Amino acid sequence: MNIRATLTIYKFEMSRFRRTIFQSLVAPIITTSLYFVVFGAAIGSKIESINGVSYGSFIVPGLIMLYLMTESINNAAFGIYFPKFTGSIFEVLSAPVSALEATIGYVGAAATKSTIIGLMIFFTSNFFCHA
Q1: Which of 10, 52, 55, 114 could form a disulfide bond with 44, CB atoms 3.0-4.6 angstroms apart?
Q2: Which of 46-55, 85-94, 99-108 has the highest mean pLDDT?
Q3: Is residue 96 part of a domain?
């Protein structure tokens, strides 16, 4: 297995994450904050608690999973399909990298990015609800 090629793909995708930090990290955090504000004001004021858990705390795991699933699929698909449209897919196809190694690099980076986003949403949720 070509570990260097897998790490190169992983590092390239993570550098793309850092270059597009606003759309990759800040946008999901702002959107989740809006969910807290809108649902907290509209529904949370009418629901006092669910089995002793406040409404805000009740929806946190759902919002985290919503963005984990959405961002992991979007990040992996964008990393794999975007080079096809820009014409740089030939760099990956002509390199001595197997499909498994490329998949591990792209999926590993997507999983890392999604985990970072999930953790940031978790920390942001502490501003809106208390455990």
Answers
A1: 55
A2: 99-108
A3: yes
